[in-house]
Every structure is written in C-alpha cells, then in structure tokens.
Design brief:
Chain lengths: 313, 367, 297
C-alpha cells in the first residue's frame, strides 16, 4: 500500500458512494429507529407539527395487531416449510448430479433455469397452472370453464379437482401452492452452491471409503454430509433470510391483493405489512421493520451457532 | 498373501477425443509378489507405478491381464470386496473425524458375520494405534496433527481391518527429510511385525532401496527390472536402471570396445573379454574408481569434498556424458588437491557396458 | 478377509459377487437418472406450459382435456399481449433505467473499490467494516424512509427515483475490492514509478484485470432492473415511467376471473425471453456471480 501524498484524494474517489449511502442507507437506519420509537408516528401529521411520545407504543401496537400476527404466521409457516424441503431436495439433486457423467451439464443447466426468471412473471404461469375458473362458482350448477393443468393431472389420476387459488379456496390450498412455487424458485441457487461444494470434496476420501468397503448410505451420511456442512449451513441461513423477506412470489401468484379473490391480505407477509404501512403509518412500519430485522438477526445467529457446533473443521 | 500380476495392462483413452492417442500407463506387467514381503515400485513420475497400485487396490480396472490374491482371481472384484488396506499419498484422513473415529471407520463398515461389537472395535483400533505409536492422540482431529502423525494415523486406519495386502502410495513424499528417514524405518518395522504383504510406490530410489525386500523399477509403463535392491544395483539390465539407482548417480561415458579392450575417449582403461568391437556407453559407479598413479583413466581434477570416512572427488573427462564425474573413495587414499589431473584405475565389477542404441547391458567376463 | 476365508471362497462365489456388484451399479445409475430426469421435467414444465399456452387459441386452452402440443400455433397472442400490456413502452423504460443505473453504478463502485483496495487514508478499515455491517440489514427497513425522502425531494414519478437510490451497492464494492486486492501491489508501484496517474492505472490495469467481476455486476444489475417490482410500484406507477415487471402484473390483474390466459402467457414469455438470452450467452458469469453472492438479480 502506498502512503499517498494527498490523503484527501481517497475521499474524492469515495465521495459519490458516501453521499448516496448517507442519504439512502445511513439516514434511513437512524430515521427508522427514531420513527419506531415515536408512538403513532406518521409523516403527514408530523408535517402539521404534531408531537409524539417516545416509547414502545408502536411495537406493542404492532404485536397486538391481528393483521401483523397473521403476516408473521404466514411468513414463519412458509419459512419453516420451504427451507427444509428445498434444502433436502437440492441436496438430493446435487448428490445425484455429482454421481453421473453423461448429461450432467445439460441437467445442471436445466436445474439452474428458474434462477434467471422474473418471480412475478413465472408466478403468473404458476397461477395459470393452478387456476380453476368457473361461472356461478360455488353454486350447484357451476360450470368449470378452465381448469388449470394441475387439476387436469389430478383428475387424470382419478382425484377430484382442488380449488387452489381462486375465490373460495382454502388457506392450506393457498399455502401448498406457495410452498411449491417458492421451493421451485429456491432450488437453483441451492443446487448450484451444494454441487460446487460436492465437487470441491477431495475424491480420495471416496476412494479411501471404497477401499474400506463403505456402503453408499454410510458414505453419504458419514462423509458427504459432514464435509458439505459449511455449504449446507450457508444455504440454510440464506434460505431463512430470504424466507423471512418473502413477498414478490406471493404477488406473482395472487397479485397485489396478497390473497385469493374475496379474501385479500390472507397471505400477506411481514414485508407486505411494512409496505402497506409505508405511506402514512411510518411508526408502525418502522417498528415492524425492526422486528423483522431482529428475527432475521436471531435466526442467523442461531443457525451460525448450530452450524459451528456441527461443522468441525 | 501372495499377489500375482499376470500380463497386467492399463490403457487410458487420450484426453483429446478427436486425436485418438491412447496412453499405455502399464504395459504387460507380470510378477509374483511373495507372501509377507515388502515390495517397492520405483520409477520416475508417469511410469505407471501408481496405476499398478490402484489396479491392485481395485480402484482402477485393468484393461487386460489378471490379478490374483493367493489363488483367487480378483481382477473383476471391486475395491470394497478385496480387503486391501490403502494409504494415500496425502493420507485422505477424514477431516471431520477424530483419530479414533478415523481408525474405527473401516471396522464400522463390516457387515454380516464379520461384524464386530463396539468393544472389539475399540480394542482393535487401540491396538492398531499402539502399533504405529499414536495411541495418545486418539481424540485429536487430523488438522491438529503433524504430517508424520497423520501418516501414522493413515497407516493405522489401513491396518485396523487386518488387510490381506497393504498398499502405500508415495508414503513419505509429504514428510520432511528427517521425518522421512524415521518413518521409513517405522514402515519396515510395522511390516515385519504384522507380516502383511506390503507394496509401496515411490519415485525416490534411496527410499525404495533402503527398506524393500524387492524392488520393481518401471519406466513408461514397462517393467525394467525386478530383484533384491542390492542385486539390481550391482547388476542393472540397462542404462535406465543403472542411472536411476544410486546416489551419487552413476557416471556415464562415451566409449568403444576394440580388440577386447575398453576405451573411454582416448584412454584405454581395461580389458573386457568376450565383447565384440563396437561403440558403447560406459557406466561407472562412484565407488568404482581407485586413485592410482598408474591408472589409465586420466581426469581433470576440479575439487575434493571431504565427507568424513569417504571423500568425494569431482573431476572432468572429455568423454563424460555428465558435466562432472563424481567418485567416492576411501579417505585413506591421499589425493593431491593441488594437482591438475587425477588418474584412476577401475574396479571391473563396478563398470557396466551398454549398447549405444538399445541401451541394454553388454556383459563381459570379469577375471 | 483373512487368507483362509479367501481360499474357502470358491471362484463361483467371486463371480457371483462381481456380477451382483455390477447389477447394483447399473440399478443405482438407472435410479439416479430416473430421479434427475423427473425433477428436470418438473423444473422445466412451467416454462413449457407458458410457451405452449402462449400460442394456443383461447378455445383450445379451455378444453377440459388440455393438449400438450398445441393444435395450431397462434402468434397473434403475442401481438395482442404486446399491445394490451403496452410492452414496447415498458421495455424501453426498463432498458433506459437499467442502462443508466448500471453505468453510473459501475463508475461509483469502481472508484470506491479502488479507494478501499489501493489508497491509504485514515479510518479506512473502520469505514469498510461499517459498510459491510449495513449488508445485514434487510432492504425493506430503508424503503420506509427512502419513500419519504424521495417524496421530499419531489422525485415521485420520474426516472430519477428509479435510478438514484440504488446506485450504491455495498456488496458490489466488496466484491470488486476483493478482486482488486488480488492484483499484485507491485503493478501499482511500478506504475507509480513510471509516473502513471491513479486514474490511468485504474483504467489501463485494474479494470481490464477485474473485467469478469464487472461483467457479473453488470448482468446482475440489469437483471435487477428487469425484475424490480416493489419500489417502482411504490414511487413510479405512472404509465410513462412504469417498469416492465410492474406493468406486466398490472396489465393482467383482473378480479373478474375471465382472463385471456394465452395472451397473458404470451406477455410472460416476452418478458422472460431477454432473461433466457442473457442466461444462455452469459451463463458462466451469472453462475460465478451468484455463487459468491446469494442475492437474486
């Protein structure tokens, strides 16, 4: 490193970044904390000269607020369902991909495809696939005009069509669709990371195990998984962080209403809650954002702690 | 258990698919490894020694030829069913397991009638660890061990299942010089104590010579010579083997035979009975020179290195194929270091003649 | 296996062992492929469904037994989608925002990364650590205040509001700084001795050497503009400034339930196409960028 004759020069290089960061990153952090602790803060009435008490009012209100609790439940539920499913599936696919020669690159490319998609746009495709549209829906002489391909498949195998996302659909049907879509969306990244991890494991460990007559199962549980544990931890942590910020995949399928027709906001998430309160209930939004940050922070710390205990080297 | 290699051949397809160049890693290797011996496979890199080892282990399949353990043909048997112990060059210790877990690992794989209970396993692991003297390190992770200790763990892991054959791939290459000496004695001791047929691969001739019962010298997939280390050293079949064995290496000269006399350059150095007149390559071991005022080989003296019991004399000769000639002579022979030249007579059994074209040995009668 | 057991083992047994080993191996390989191909079909099916639906007539789409291969291929859906969603305008808007923000962002990122990697100044490490710390905070937390800020600046419904707030990415600065640090410092010292200016050195040496990272950043940034939804909807939802994802979602949100799905799928296909092209031609850079970041577009 060179001791520059003009130390101010570095600051010129950094100036554009610093100015923008001050306005759009540092100030928001300060301001969000400030607003979160000003009870009932709203910028519009603040302009009118209104004064606010300092306290935990916003947090209390948010936590007692029914809508927020349903957002929290939805978010948690999606997280708890999608992270393990997608991780295990991605691990299986990565291990299988790593064990084959012909077609490996082609399959690898296919599995990466969902990554480069627009989650809103492909959400609309999923919506079409799970769609079921009828006239006089719910009445006795209802006629199904369009049944999405998923229902066609179900009926082909002798099942009865399910109302997945349309008016009158059940909460669990909605959640199922969201889990399918989120897992589909989350797989490519996880497969990429895990496959990269697998390929970096020294082949000699497998040769050594083979000479010692180790069964496939034991190789997988005693060698592959432990040696892959740093990657698994990474994938799980980023999965949880992403899961807690779930929003646009729901918009993709259900639209801005965040729920089936007739029951808007049913599938709203924490991020959705923040956006809803953003324009004129900033106190509430800020408190919710800090709670979200707190949850992500705690979950990440727990994950790091657990993975540190589980990964030994 | 004796191990029989019968016309063992391994051909690797060329890397470039368009040009169909195949690489013959091992070419028609036939050899019976006697029971309970320590065998060194020796050669420069790319000579096929590691490939041979991996074929014996079952990790690689021979292109043709057969492998027998005892009387059983194991050629088609995969690695897991052969019951060999293999120590990898970089040990391949599982980094997430302790030393104990590493050594237990092969035992936990046993199924059916071979299955052991927990106490038996621990006992065997302890015994294997004691054999290689690491029983006080059982709870460490490989990353907390030195290279030599890791090596021992790897050997213990290979021995714990009581393998029929123990295979070592460049066992000493990752150790520093001092540890290398110590470990090779250790390997010799362990092999003697267990009596397991052991095959190890090395590119270091000194290492192979010092501990092997027999050595196999290989070059470009072809076996050059098999025999007891001293026999191979004293009686190499070709120039390659002669050059490959021995430190300092053999001195090589351009020479010719005329009327039963050997000439090196213009110096007529000795009688070689029974050899037809022809140009030859002459190899002389460093210990084959005797300073002699009546000596026929006249060399320019460069310097003398005192090594205690012996001295190493560095000299030059116009017919030498190496830049300098190194000879080892007894320190009792006084050399005049201020002289310009040194004269040598030669010990006939330390002089080898090779055909100039084929580099195979030309034998002559030593009276 | 001890020697005696080996001897007891007849040659027949050995042959049995080897042939059963082979059979297991083949069976396992077969299962691997079966599983992978099944998963691949599931992964790829939505794309396939999007494509075939986009060329079907509405009546064919509504058949109670759907056709897996369209009977007739109707490109009119694409024309209709293009007009109905005003995709041309949205496309140009997005391209403009994407290009301008990528360009400015690259300049800012390169300058900051250079300062952090090569220049010496007081508080450098503290500042860098502080920047990294902000990466832990979810972006939604910033949005609340930024919404008020851009409002106060009078930037609502403009291209400025879509470009400026996201010009600095701490992550990209970090990525590029790491890359710059790998370039041996001797090169910089040599350039100094030769009297090369910092900027010239940056332009002639650092940037060419860090090109792969810069390309990765460019792709991710462009994809970001293409896929951004929440912020544009909040602050620039007027037709003249609307970005493509937002426009796509808006054009086909109808509560009547009688959406012309083939047209909708055609629109989705049009929006997805550039992403696929980028993926096909720049896959290497995307995968590299992704495996280091874990951040979606």
């Amino acid at each position: 490193m060179v001791e520059s004759k003009h130390p101010w020069k570095a600051w010129i290089y950094l100036a554009p970044a610093i100015v923008l960061l001050l306005i759009f990153t540092v100030w928001p952090i300060i301001n969000t904390v400030r607003m979160a602790f000003l009870e009932g803060y709203s910028s519009m009435s603040a302009v009118g000269g209104m004064q606010y008490n300092f306290g935990f009012g916003n947090f209390k209100q948010v936590l007692q607020y029914k809508d927020f609790l349903s957002c929290l439940t939805n978010t948690m539920l999606l997280c708890v369902l999608t992270v393990p499913i997608s991780t295990i599936l991605a691990l299986l696919i990565a291990v299988c991909l790593n064990a084959i020669r012909p077609l490996q690159r082609l399959l690898q490319t296919i599995f990466f495809l969902p990554y480069v998609t627009n989650s809103i746009a492909i959400g609309m495709v999923f919506a079409a696939m799970f769609n079921m549209v009828g006239s006089a829906f719910g009445s006795e002489n209802e006629i199904v005009i369009t049944a999405g391909i998923i229902n066609n498949v179900i009926e082909f195998f002798g099942g009865t069509a399910v109302n997945w996302i349309n008016a009158g659909s059940t909460y669990w049907a909605n959640i199922t669709v969201m889990v399918v879509y989120i897992v589909w969306n989350a797989l490519p990244f996880k497969i990429l990371i895990l496959l990269g991890g697998l390929q970096s494991i020294n082949k000699q460990y497998y040769d050594a195990a083979k000479v010692d007559g180790t069964s496939r199962r034991r190789v997988f549980t005693k060698i592959t998984v432990p040696l892959l544990s740093p990657m698994l931890a990474y994938v799980v942590i980023t999965g949880f962080i992403g899961g807690f910020k779930e929003y646009s995949s729901i918009v993709g399928i259900f639209g801005d209403d965040m729920g089936p027709t007739g029951d808007p906001r049913r599938l709203n998430t924490m991020v959705g809650f923040i956006y809803d309160a953003l324009a004129n209930k900033q106190g509430r939004a800020s408190a919710a954002a800090l709670i979200l940050f707190g949850i992500i922070f705690v979950v990440t710390m727990i994950n790091l702690y657990v993975s540190k205990k589980k990964t030994h080297y | 258990m004796k191990v029989v290699l019968q016309n063992l051949t391994k051909v690797f397809p060329g890397r470039n698919k368009k040009v169909n160049e195949e690489v013959v890693a091992v070419n028609d290797f036939t050899f019976t490894i006697p029971d309970g011996k320590l065998i060194g496979l020796l050669g420069p890199s790319g000579c096929g020694k590691s490939t041979t080892l991996y074929m014996i282990s079952g990790l690689q399949k021979p292109t043709s030829g057969k492998i027998f353990f005892g009387d059983d043909d194991v050629t088609e048997l995969s690695a897991e069913s052969r019951g060999v112990g293999l120590v990898f060059q970089n040990y391949a210790l599982y980094p997430h397991m302790t030393v104990r877990q590493n050594i237990l690992f092969p035992l936990q794989n046993l199924r059916g009638k071979d299955k052991l209970n927990k106490n038996e396993m621990l006992e065997r692991a302890q015994k294997a660890a004691a054999l290689v003297q690491i029983d006080n390190l059982m709870d460490r992770k490989p990353s907390e061990l030195s290279g030599g200790q890791q090596q021992r763990v790897a050997i213990a892991r290979a021995l714990v299942k009581m393998p029929s054959v123990l295979l070592l791939d460049e066992p000493l290459s990752n150790l520093d010089a001092r540890l290398r000496l110590q470990t090779r004695e250790e390997i010799r001791r362990i092999q003697k104590e267990t009596g397991i047929t052991t095959i190890f691969v090395t590119h270091d001739q000194e290492e192979a010579m010092s501990i092997s019962d027999m050595i196999v010298v290989m070059k470009l997939g072809l076996v050059q010579q098999i025999g007891r280390p001293q026999d191979v050293y004293d009686d190499p079949v070709n120039l390659f083997v002669a050059k490959f064995l021995g430190t300092p290496p053999i001195n090589v000269f351009d020479g010719r035979v005329e009327n039963g006399r050997l000439y090196i350059g213009e110096d007529e150095v000795m009688k070689v009975k029974g050899v037809e007149d022809q140009p030859v390559t002459v190899g002389i071991r460093p210990e084959g020179f005797t300073p002699d005022s009546k000596g026929r080989l006249v060399c320019g003296l460069n310097g003398v290195e005192i090594m205690g019991r012996d001295v190493s004399v560095v000299s030059t000769h116009p017919a030498s194929l190496n830049p300098v000639i190194r000879s080892i002579i007894n320190a009792d022979n006084k050399i005049d270091t201020s002289a310009e030249t040194v004269k040598y007579s030669l010990k006939p059994h330390k002089v080898f003649l090779f055909n100039k074209e084929t580099e195979t040995r030309i034998y002559f009668e030593v009276k | 296996m001890s020697e005696s057991t080996m001897k007891v083992m007849q040659e027949k047994d050995l042959r049995k062992v080897t042939s059963s080993q082979k059979a297991v191996k083949i069976a396992v390989q077969f299962m691997l492929y079966a599983f992978l191909i099944l998963m691949a079909i599931i992964i790829i099916f939505p794309f396939y469904w999007m494509l075939i639906s986009s060329v079907k007539s509405l009546s064919e789409y509504r058949l109670s037994v759907p056709t897996l291969f369209p009977r007739e291929i109707l490109f009119s859906n694409y024309v209709e989608a293009f007009n109905q969603a005003n995709l041309g305008r949205l496309f140009l808007n997005t391209l403009y925002v994407g290009l301008v923000s990528t360009l400015l962002s690259l300049v800012i990122t390169v300058l900051s990364a250079f300062a952090f990697a090569r220049l010496e100044f007081k508080g450098k490490n503290t500042l860098f650590a502080l920047l990294l710390a902000t990466m832990m905070i979810p972006g939604e937390l910033f949005t609340i205040t930024n919404y008020a800020t851009v409002n106060a600046f009078g930037w609502m419904d403009s291209f400025t509001v879509l470009i400026v707030p996201f010009l600095v990415s701490v992550f990209y600065i970090y990525l590029l700084r790491q890359n710059f640090m790998q370039i041996p410092n001797e090169l910089y010292l040599a350039a100094k001795v030769d009297g090369t200016s910092d900027l010239k050195y940056l332009w002639k040496v650092m940037i060419p050497l860090a090109l792969p990272t810069l390309i990765s950043i460019t792709i991710l940034k462009m994809m970001g503009a293409w896929n951004s939804y929440v912020w544009p909807r909040l602050v620039a939802n007027k037709e003249e400034y609307r970005l493509i994802t937002n426009g796509l979602r808006n054009a086909f949100t109808e509560s009547t339930g009688d959406v012309n799905i083939p047209v909708q799928m055609a629109a989705v296909a049009i929006v997805s196409l550039p992403l696929f092209l980028v993926f096909i031609f720049l896959r290497k850079y995307i995968m590299k960028g992704v495996s280091r970041s874990g951040i979606k577009g």
